[in-house]
Amino acid sequence: MAQNYGSKRIVTGAQYGLRDWLVQRITAVLMALFTLVLLAQVLFGGPLGYDRWAAIFSSQWMKSATFVVLLALSWHAWIGMRDIWMDYIKPVGVRLALHVFTLVWLVGCAGWAIQVLWRL
Known about the structure:
- This protein has one domain (about 15-120): 3 helical TM bundles of succinate and fumarate reductases.
- It is mainly alpha-helical.
- It is built from 4 helices and no strands.
């Protein structure tokens, strides 16, 4: 068991604990419910093609639900990737670069998905 002597302190994400655990569970439940709603519309909505997909996402409530799920997915992915980077990448500069890359990537993907969603 390692002991910490002196004032040198290792900064980690321990303060996120319960909040991030809850966010991961809540966003996972939101994504699962959305998947069930979407699956029901696909299975019980008639023949599947572009017109059917466009009809599913044309209503405002479905666009809004999809928007919320996209935000939940991005938040869920951010917490997971941030924890991976903090746990396994020790050099601070590399970890910071990966954090920035992850944030930029997630914001870009969410922006692109929203753009596609509102063009339907």
